[in-house]
Amino acid sequence: MTAPAAPAPGRGRRLARRVVRIAGLLMLLAAPWWLQQLDYFRVRRVEITGTRYLPPAAILSALALDSTASIWARRGPLEARVRAHPQVREAAIRRRLPGTLVIAVTENLPVALLDTPDGVVPIDRSARPLPIDPSQTPLDLPLVARQDSAALRLLGDLLEAEPALFARVSELRWDADGGMRVILAGVIVRTGPQVSADRFAEILPVEADLVRRGHRVRELDLRYRDQIVARIE
To answer: Would residue 193 be called left, alpha or beta, if left means φ above 0 and alpha means ψ between -120 and 50 degrees?
Structure first.
């Protein structure tokens, strides 16, 4: 009677490697679960970057981490919690082993103070009220009397592209025909409601040239196509 042939050595090794690969894959799939059970990876520190007005305590409160939280917890839900705060535009979380979460925050910055019967309210470029207390946080921002989308977009664009020019804006007023008067430090800029930040910034070389000639600029008018009309004293 003939004994059954033993499996070829090469075939046995291939089978063993396949078993190891499958086991490794199963461990990887289960990794978030079993890694979260290890005390070594508990969140012990949270670092927050990118904030200007938003206090770190507000981010920590939005995260709502408990004492058992692991850095291997899914980042998506945590980032969504932070983004739910009205002052947060974007949030990204990365891990730093063994127990630190680093949160990079992009804020919705205030661009104006809305004048209301109950006092001034900081608002962003989308006219959204922001939970910033002006009595606790000094805000050197333009005063506006209404939530005008074109005006707030202009202010937001100036803040990003021309921060020095934005810093000079103290107030926005509206004319009866819908035009805007932007009050700078000692200068009134008259413009249409849809002016861009680039067009608005064209006042800078005109203003500088007039000052160099010894003129005191009282008003600059942007309502005329491809030109700026200056009224001087």
So the answer is: alpha
